[in-house]
Structures
1.
Amino acid sequence: MTEPETNPPPTGDHRLPLAFILATLVIDAMGIGLILPVMPELIGEVHGGSLAEAAVWGGILATGFAVMQFLFGPALGALSDAYGRRPVLLVSLAVMAADYLVMALTHSIWILLVARIVGGILAATHATAMAFVADISRPEEKSARFALTHAAYGVGFVLGPLIGGLLGIFGPRAPFYAAALLALANLFLGLAVLPETVTDRIRRPFSWARGNPFGAIAQIGQLPGVGRLLTVLAIYEFALYVYPAIWAYFTPVRFGWDTPMVGTSLAVFGVGYTIVQAGLIRPILKRLGDHGTIFFGLSFEVGILATLGMVTSGTIAMILTPISAIGSVAVPALQGVMSARVGEDAQGQLQGVITSTISLATVLAPLVMTQVFYATTREGAAYHNPGAAFLLAAVLMVGGVILYVAGTQERADNPR
């Protein structure tokens, strides 16, 4: 692994390509968000059983998806370094359109599982888009531009769950048809306007040493401070996966919310997330810097997770939902710091490694969080608390804060 190159990124007007990538992420997030509110109902329809049992299957499906992302994320990142961002993005969109259609049509829990596995293999849109943004950004621009990509994701997450909750009125399969159409429309748009940013200057031949997750993580992790930052990111993502893992099950049990209300709450979070990433993060970065922003975001998450683990009022939970997005400032700052420490010819590999790191964290997170939810909500549970998984997540986040602070102090004591 080489040290970061000093050459600037390609010059020119990148506003239109960046706008397209942001639009791509909006549509990508809409496709994911559309299906979240109806997953419990769809699992119940194809498999039967109680809501608690549906949560367990939801964890299995999410884990299968995450395992594939872990295994194939670096390979897709390395392929995009070798052959370009454009083909990886377009192939991913084509497969995801088919994947949503299969989920809309299936009546088998096993086919649903296979569909999530296939979707996980080529769910490279986000990581490859981040590599694209890194290609066109100078080091000092990266954290703020990564925040824009998260803001675009937030916009999609506002629209997706809201529309998904409304479409759920027509049955649990309707949002999957809508997600397939969105992915297909995005594919055609990409075919028409998506430029290529990988030039011969930064192109790097594909290698399985960099394309497998273990080799890629080992290489990236050798760079000063990057390994520790990846570990902090893994802890953060493991803890925060409590939301997608149990939110659609937790809120009906704790607060009595129905599917449209769950969709509305996810949309409200998306609004808060978009505001944070599009506007709030810039003054925070300016005032606190990358490292201060990371510490602030991690610490804020500890408080929110602990509060959600104990709150019993649906009104308070809804008020906290958009506020909880403030902690998300930590992620683009982490990405910006890591991207600045990696060479231009390895941005795709880095994003693949980040994808695999997140996926590795979320391989176990859905199983752990849904099992904790099941154990504390099932009939006859010795300890009944639907929010127990949020308390576990808060404890894990404390560990992330400690690890980050220790690493920052170590760098201060031993400057390079």
Note: The radius of gyration is 20 Å.
2.
Amino acid sequence: MSSLIINPFKLILRMKKVSFLLLAIAALVMSCDDSNENVLPQQDVSTAQEIDMSNFYLVTDDEELSRTTSSKNSSKNCSSMEVLNRQLKENPGLYNKMYNAELHTRNHTAKGKPDKPGGGGSGGGDTDVDVAIVADNLGVINIPVYVHIVYPDANSISNAQVTSQMNVLNSDFSSTNVDQLPTGTTFENDATDAGFSFSLAGTFRHDNSTSSWGTNDAVKTAYPPITPETHMNIWVCNIGGGILGYAQFPGTKTPATDGIVLGGDYFGVTSGVYGAGRTATHEVGHYLNLRHIWGDGRCRQDDFVADTPTAGSSNGGCPTFPSSSCKSADMTMNYMDYTYDACMYMFTDGQRNRMRAIFTSGGARESML
């Protein structure tokens, strides 16, 4: 009877081969996981049938961005899309993150589809589209705010100016600014209570001699945001270059730069055509996931809101109704246009649904609740 003899050297060699194979498999799995950040996410089949993402876009072409934001009669300058453009180049995985945030938003707002055709995605036609308000059981959403004042003399922005800005935000987002409502327009009955309130959590003053901070988030690096997961941070400084303000969109998952930057001349109630505090309202709209009313795309791109008509470009000044483009009247009085502060007064039901969606379960700003 023969006995089984195991060569110890062969055994060691086989064990090494198995170990190498396991290591190779592990490396392949890790490689696939790392690459997923740059791959368009796969939708669930049932979701894909209900949620159309075919028109989703993020601006990535500097020349196109510059061309589409040069607007008729417009001098207001919001750099939120330019900042997003830069962030996309610096972080290739950002597109995937924002795609997922948009998919969540559309899944939530699908319940508020237009009651009739036309409006934001139509490229023309009926300019007064009815959108149902989506019930979310969130009540009035309160957003606590930290204000960082960064100027050579930080006391040049008074507490009264800070208070006036908080009052404007509360008035605009609750649609209690009734003195701003014009009559005789197609959209006079479309202003809605967005269901937000804002409370001042603290003001921080920093004396800094920097004359121009730009839009590369340098002021945020110098004075980092405080608990951006639960608080909205606003930096007030001299941005330079004629920039009134810029904001970071939700879904980017970069807390170190999350928040809004505003020029001091446009913060709170001051003077001039942009001195009624509406620059902050506009930038908070971006912070809460609203695009420009004209979609930054000359009738070719949309702001993803059904009851805001497609527009060819932004509007400036105080236009006489109707100011028309894309075969329909523009909603020039919307906070997400570029008109003078005294001539903008409204968010729509569709914009309300879109802003509130990011606070629902799984939304990009759910943690703020």
Note: The mean pLDDT is 83.
3.
Amino acid sequence: MGKIGFILAILLLISWTGYSQAKKTPAYYFQRGEDALNKKEYMSALAHFNECLRLDNHYSEAYRLRAITREHLGDKDKALVDYNIYVSLIPTDVEALFSRAVLRFESDQYMLARLDFLNLLKLPPGETNTVYFSQEKYNDSNAKIFTAHSAGKDHLYNYLGLIETKLKRYDKAIEWLDSAIKVSSTNASYYINRGSARLNKNDKNGAIKDFDDALKLDPDNSLALHNLATLRSAAGENSSSEKLLTEAIEKNKDLPYPRSERAYLRLQRNDLAGALEDYDEVVRIEPLADENYFNRGLVKERMKDLTGALGDFTKAVSINDKNEKSWLSRGNVLSKLGRWDEAIEDYTVAISLASDYGLAYYNRAIANQSSGKLTYACSDLKVAEKYGVKADVKIREKICK
């Protein structure tokens, strides 16, 4: 009996295991993925949605939720692939189409985003649980919550206006933003966006009016303050511009633009310590933007902090190795440190990126001359002159003997 009981126990165990495995259907993994997504356990959610779709690659809702999961994980390219599959299966899902449109816009796919937003104008609102925030990046002073279901057409008009601005079709951009303002005349962001389009069209008076109107609606709007300050700075009103920039910074300490603009003004009047303080903050806010390290490197170079400048220019080229000015600037610091061969390498990279970069040829000529390579130095000097960088007569005679 004991042996029979043992065999029965094994059979029961095998049967239960088989039953347990049978339960793990695509729907099982989908539910697990949805639960993990709701708990913000994104890696776990991704694994479950992957398994769901491995078992059933037509499980449409899994594509949509996996797209959302991948967005949270910062994988925009794969999120877009999932949205594309889902929308091809469910083309009238307003929420998914809106999500894809926004993601395409954020990924600089402006023509495709435009097509999605135009299609959304033709579709009736759908049910949704997804919450969106109508705010510019960093500018949280006038954030409003909406869903794809509750959003009026003004949000769609606004996005279409932003897209046309990106495409440099400013008249069309202004038309769309006019429509957004007609639907919702109390949204400061729409006036800011229209002001930016007008500014790009060289309508400075119209832009100033829009930024002023935005501030009437939202006196704490740091982006509007920044834009007005930039306009005044361009007009030579540096003192009033810096005052506006300081006000913008105080209202939103995480907005990089006014700090960067104020740093530039401080640099212009040789307030190097103030400029450095601002650029330090800009780098903190946007640590992956190469131009921030480049600008801070220029300040450090003027402060005779060559080691610090070299570090910033090195960081700039590590983030973006296609900017010839960063390579030139790092070469200049290396030259000042007497590291001629390394400087020559950097100038050479700058020239490879911009073959008519006269200043890079000139500086490489000086570096070649300093390292005793007079033939190369003379050749570079002649090319520099060809591209408009004239050498002092004494320098030319010394290099090209």
Note: The domain at 23-91 is CATH 1.25.40.10 (Serine Threonine Protein Phosphatase 5, Tetratricopeptide repeat).
4.
Amino acid sequence: MSVHLRDEGPPGDPVPIVLLHGTSSSLHTWEGWVRELKAKRRVITFDMPGFGLTGPSPDNVYTLESYSRFVMAVMDKLGVQRCVLGGNSFGGHVSWVTALTYPGRVEKLILVDSSGYDHRSASVPIGFRIAKIPVLNRLVANILPRSLIESSIQNVYGDPGKVTQELVDRYFDITVREGNRRALVQRFKQAPSGGALALRVPELKLPTLIIWGGLDRLIVPEEGDRFHQEIAGSRLVIFDDLGHVPQEEDPVRTAAAVKRFLNIP
């Protein structure tokens, strides 16, 4: 399949930073971080199967295992042997599962409001709720009002006032790309949070940075505490005024935490 990808920064960086977006997002969510990091480090971002401009998976498979294999396939294609792997929300879930599955390929891990546990949500975006409901999810695959996208984005921001019309336009355009809405329904069916994999989080032994928005209502901060407790030696940084996508809301402050973690001057 064709993959929408950006490869920026020094090409000779031996351990690039690979960043994975969350559900219904795209590589654009990392643009702020890339601006902050690419002067010193090679940063690779891409749209995962079912999302953005990469679009649906040809085989209609959206399991966590398939996403991990996809990440490895992209790294192999780019000749990347080892990386710093990071992800937000579902991208965080894929990141830590990939680190468990391919430990030799991941040097360090960055989890940003990551999913993976049977989490408790204080508030779930309406688009996500509909995508999980039989019959209704068939409707969202064909009909999707822009207002629903806007309210869903506002739901995951700590400060809804930061949600611009340009941001809504971008999310709407990538969501209505042919096949993406049907893929979203399958993603929720095939790659749920929790289960046996969540019991393996304590097996992660690599240096790990955990970033969380204190106002995250989709995956509450207590989940970040749990990752921190179960991943030995991990660092936890909470931004009290940010929501579920802190890398978008305040890329400068959140990327500064990454620079400290990776010793980037």
Note: The chain has a mean pLDDT of 91.
